[in-house]
Amino acid sequence: MIGAEFVSLSLPPVIIGICVAVACALPGNFLVLRRQALIGDAISHVVLPGIVVAFLLTGAVSTWPMLLGAAGAAVLAVAAIETIRRLGRIEPGAAMGVVFTTMFAGGVLLLEQSDTSSVHLDVEHALYGNLESLIWLDASGWGSLLDPVALAGLPVELLRMAATLAGVILFIFIFWRPLKISTFDEGFAQTMGMKTGALGLALVIVSAIAAVAAFDAVGSIIVIAMFICPPAAARMMTNRLERQVAWSVLFAVSAAIAGYVIAGYGPVWMGFAASVSAAGMIATLSGVILGLAAALGPHRKRGSPA
Amino acid sequence: MITDALLLQLGYNASLVTLGAILLGMAAGVGGTFLFLRKRALVSDAISHATLPGVALAFIVMVGLGGDGRSLVGLLAGAAGSAALGLLIVSWLSTRTRLAEDAAIGAVLSVFFGLGVVLLTVIQSMRSGQQAGLEGFLLGSTAGMLRSDAVIIAVSAALTLALVLLLRRPLTLASFDPGFATATGQNTARTDLAMMGIVLAVTVVGLKIVGLILIVALLIIPPVTARFWTERTDRVVLISGLLGGLSAYIGAALSAALPDLPTGPIIVLVGFAIFMISLILAPRRGVLAAWVHHRAFQKSVHLRQGLLALAQGQPIYEPLTLRLLRREGWALPDGVATDEGRGRAARALLDETRWQIIRRDPSFEAAAAHYDGLTPIERVLTPDQIAEVDTRLPSARMVAP
């Protein structure tokens, strides 16, 4: 399995999977601690209408308009949730439920009403993505990794996801201290003069960017799973944020690699011809990791000693 | 065509499905109210996504046993099983570990859905799986439904509604005042379990009509909408049930009458349209009502302050105050009081002076707490008390009313 075929067929999806997993898990650590874990869920529902509208306006499945459309939809959703919450004096969970289901319903309806039969754009694709199809046809073996001509043929999703991951890491690195303080003690952060509101918004925006970029490549299930499961599992392992982030990255990477391998090769080992959805398997494995951590992790209970 | 659909004239199956949708919408509206009042609306999202692996497993098992795997009862039983498991895991994670409920919801939702997708791809690779049509459970599809399936849906929706109505009283009590419910000997843990059972039933019955991704909307939007129209729990329940039934009715009928309109999204969008109308037009809590109330309050503050300024001979620079005074006929355009305005101004000043006196006197503390610069003092003091206050008026500033 480790040969020329692996480099062209499996290496790019695995790397993309790892980038997606880590890019979502990093901000996920803060979202889980801030009890905003369902933001990933909401974002991945609301980007559908944005993508469909972008497609209807441009008439083609091209990357940048769709990313813009998705980002626009995410911003619109945040504004709508806030407006409904304030105007109607409704609790945030319910306001979120109203907005994201409605926008998803609108997206589905637009999709069904418009003629998208000629292109690969449907609800299933938006949900599951298609990680397996992101292959590197120009590769002829491990040597291609050093060959500039072949490297130019890498799937664009890989470069985009790597850039997104770099951006996420940079954001968390630069704002580490303010993020940490405002997550654990917002009042204290405010007395120290931090703009906690702006910081919280920036965190949501960074998460949204990660979600939208990942969504395009791998569909929404992985996105939601990776925002929550690795950080939640890491939370059972330690009481220190630094170690929690490290654990979550470890969990995310293992889920991505193991999930892809099991989905692609597991059925073959068991004697079946076809493979199963890699995105679904990665999400499932992250759940298995969370289950193990929740059952065995040293800090799984509330108020466990440091 | 649309009127035909609304009047249930599109054939037996379509009418049965529409009827089932109405009953389901009502059950979801009523059941969702308790969820909303308990602030646990999004738990239903985890439950509904958790149905997918159950549906897929049920299909695989039924095919393995030699059937064609499309028995609706079997699929729904599988859905109920895995949804119940998902629910158990959510409550286990959020009570037995340090995870908050939202993280538990998100984890169960994504992992179960991911597992379901894996199983769906397994089914696609099976020989009998090509035309399984399980994707219909994602977004709901009522077109071309079998007679027997339509009957199952209508009957189970009716049963769900009956269950909700049966459990209405304990649920209302527990969601409105859990402390009181416990004090009167009600087992709130069991009531919560019943509430989740209702949500489970709604989800499973709604799978074929609305689809698992959007069923949560049926449980959230009607109660949130109903909350705009009333402050009373029992009426929220009633209105929410009616609105849920109404949006399901219109949505199912539209979807049956027009091509390419999937049922679930249409029902959700109809529900949202009703929500928007309520958000804007509802009395008291609506945006329009709030704006009107704000303008009225603003007007009375400006008039009061304007009158006080007139009484004390101070010039008025605020254009809105001047405009309001002129419109009432109490001042001329240059800010000079009319005769009527002078009378009103004197009365306002007298009122204000009396308020100042009682606010300085601790024996009037309770009454003085009502001071907001607008309430006439006659509303908080008896004529005798006012007469007593008036003895303390500074004589030089005594003005005849």
Average pLDDT over all residues of chain B: 85
Strand content of chain B: under 5%
Helix count of chain A equals 13
First and last CA, distance of chain A? 44 Å
As an assembly, this protein is: heterodimer
Largest interface: A-B, 67 and 59 residues
Query: What is the string of SSEs of chain B from the N terminus onward?
Result: HHHHHHHHHHHHHHHHHHH
Proportion of residues in extended strands of chain A? under 5%
- C-alpha end-to-end distance of chain B: 70 Å
The gross shape of chain A turns out to be: globular
Helix content of chain B: over 70%
Q: What is the N-to-C succession of helices and strands of chain A? A: HHHHHHHHHHHHH
Rg of chain A (C-alpha, Å): 20 Å
Report the count of strand segments of chain A: 0
SS-derived structural category of chain B: mainly alpha
Poorly predicted regions of chain B are: none
The geometry of chain B reads as: elongated
Quick tags:
heterodimer, A: 306 residues, mainly alpha, 13 helices, 0% strand, globular, B: 401 residues, 19 helices, 72% helix, elongated
What does this structure look like?
The complex is a heterodimer of chains A (306) and B (401). Chain A has helices spanning 4-33, 39-58, 63-88, 92-113, 123-128, 148-151, 156-174, 176-184, 186-191, 196-218, 220-235, 241-269, 278-296. With 306 residues, chain A is mainly alpha-helical. Chain A is globular and about 60 Å long. Chain B is mainly alpha-helical. Chain B has helices at 2-6, 12-37, 43-49, 51-64, 72-96, 101-125, 136-139, 147-166, 168-176, 178-183, 188-206, 215-229, 233-257, 263-281, 287-311, 319-327, 339-360, 365-368, 383-390. The longest helix of chain B has 26 residues, at 12-37. Chain B is elongated.
